[in-house]
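re: ur question from earlier - yeah i can do the single chain one, its not a big deal. heres the input i used so u can compare w yours
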Amino acid sequence: DEASRMTAVQVLAAEYDEEGVNEKFRCLIQGSVCVLGRATESMVRVFRKLLGSSIVLGSSMGDIDCHIGGLPFTCSRRAACIRYTGGGYEICCLNHEDVVTLNGRRLSTGSKWVSIKSNDVCSIGPRVFAFLLPQQV
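and the output i got, formated as tokens:
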């Protein structure tokens, strides 16, 4: 089966091509913890006023390490967290109102951290992305 030989990035590119609704973004995890979420409307307004441009997806804003964008109310300000434990990376859902998935399995708040590996497919609200380690980029 051809789909089973494709990497997560290739699968996402096939599903969300240039005309798709998913936007390409990168976020560099600079510490041991990375909070993913959507910037508030007030943060977006302040950013536009100060810099005269829109927020770049994957950028850091306030207490959000990775702004994933999207329409208002599609995910919260602090939706998910990825952390490095020394032995690998883990992900968890931070807000019970958010839909956070890892390889199609929904994560719930209060559950244990789940191991995340390079090429795993994640989603936060409507944003779908592949988790890649630096040597995979």
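The two ends are 25 Å apart (CA to CA). not sure if urs matches, ping me
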